[in-house]
Write a structure and sequence with these properties.
This protein has one domain: Porin, CATH 2.40.160. The chain is 5% helix and 58% strand. It is built from one helix and twelve strands, in the order H-E-E-E-E-E-E-E-E-E-E-E-E. The chain has an eight-stranded antiparallel barrel with strand order 1-3-4-7-8-10-11-12. A two-stranded antiparallel ribbon has the order 5-6. Strand 3 and strand 4 form a beta hairpin.
Length: 243
């Protein structure tokens, strides 16, 4: 993940003569599907969970956009089915699901992805974008503490690759500040350490699963560096051509 961030920052710095470099932050909600593989506790009812996002982007005069973006959100759902319980170190969980409570796979799921978008200007203030993303994800959770509304709390420490896409709209409120709506789709492949057991699976297996998440966020976008459209095909003081 550190290499991804460093390479992306270097790429942004190298292309500092772009049309604009912007920083964005937002808040919203996320839903997720049911986990696959040997996570036996499957949710069949979606929940709306919190979601946060941040993005550093470079947009060219020719309306290509790339950079780094991150989401943080919860992975959870409910199950109408009752599953066999398990021993959770200090706790004995008699059963999971079928009680109206949620199954929490990770309270804080963080993905950091490099993205590549195509930007389409609707007018001189509003644009929409569509693109792809790939990166790294890790999942944090406190599996030893249960809230009253929780039937299952997954283990801490899952990590792996993530990939997906995003669609959004951006509209300027002023010269350098705009509001955005972003809909992202992320597919996570989460692997856990060898000592993390897949619950209720015999013989013993290390926990691993894939899951789909859709965070939807709204927020503000700030232009840190901006060059007008009339600079296209012109040169800066270092004789580097604006693209």
């Amino acid at each position: 993940m550190k290499r991804l961030l460093v390479l992306s920052m270097m790429f942004l710095a190298y292309n500092a003569d772009a049309q604009k470099i912007s920083l964005a932050g937002g808040i919203g909600g996320a839903v997720n599907g049911s986990p696959s593989d040997n996570m036996v506790y499957k949710s069949d009812q979606s929940l709306l969970n919190y979601a946060l996002t941040a993005k550093l982007a470079y947009t060219t005069v020719t309306n290509w956009q790339y950079g780094v973006m991150s989401h943080m959100h919860e992975l959870s759902g409910k199950s109408s089915k009752t599953y066999e319980g398990f021993h959770n170190r200090h706790l004995r969980i008699d059963s999971v699901g079928g009680d109206g409570k949620k199954l929490v796979y990770a309270k804080n799921t963080v993905n950091v992805s490099a993205f590549f978008n195509r930007n389409f200007n609707l007018n001189n203030k509003t644009s929409i974008y569509l693109g792809i993303a790939a990166g790294y994800v890790y999942a944090r959770n406190n599996s030893l503490y249960y809230e009253e509304n929780e039937s299952y709390n997954g283990p801490d420490g899952g990590n792996g690759l993530c990939y997906g896409g995003q669609l959004g709209i951006n509209s300027y409120l002023g010269e350098h500040v705009s509001i955005f709506l972003d809909v992202a789709v992320r597919y996570y492949d989460l692997e856990y350490d060898s000592n993390v057991e897949a619950p209720a699976v015999r013989p013993y297996e290390t926990l691993s699963y894939s899951i789909l998440a859709v965070p939807v966020t709204v927020g503000l976008n700030f232009d840190l560096f901006k060059i007008g459209e009339n600079t296209r095909n012109s040169y800066n003081t270092r004789r580097k051509k604006y693209n």
